[in-house]
Amino acid sequence: MKLTIYILILFTFFSCKSSKVDLELTQINTKVEYYQNGKIKTVVNTDSLTGLRIGFWNEFYENGQLKESGNYKLDSYKQCCVAGLCDEFYSYKFGEWSYYHLNGKLKAKGIYKIGKKIRNTNCEGGAEINFGFITENWKFYNEEGIEIKPNTSDITEIEKSSYTTQWDLLKN
User: Which of 3, 53, 69, 76 could form a cystine bridge with 87, CB 3.0-4.6 A?
Assistant: First the structure.
């Protein structure tokens, strides 16, 4: 009986071993997606293993105007899985990003301040992840190109897209 329990404990321990993404071993694929009208939707780098965004990201409106441009980093956090803890991968925005209005004029530009945020997971208390926050150094502009003071919805709109998980990709 004790032997069975020890075997189960060892099995659980070894089956829960996690693996951190080694970015030097990451295979990067450049992908181009198109709208039905033939115009480019996105030009992106993705990790071949997870399909997540890594490196540059350019997204366009259906009219061909650039919508947003910047870079992503790949990271992981702990998730509670059937056999114990496992790694869940995500991409987060970092560095300088630019966002544009449908008419092509600059909407917002700034450098994300990387901080920590709790993501809800199956584990009690969630997991702490890297997250790009908007700072007071960001500049926001109206559709005419005039600098404006951002309201809460302007900031929320940009911050809500600060990271993407593998589950987010499955929803699309």
Answer: 76
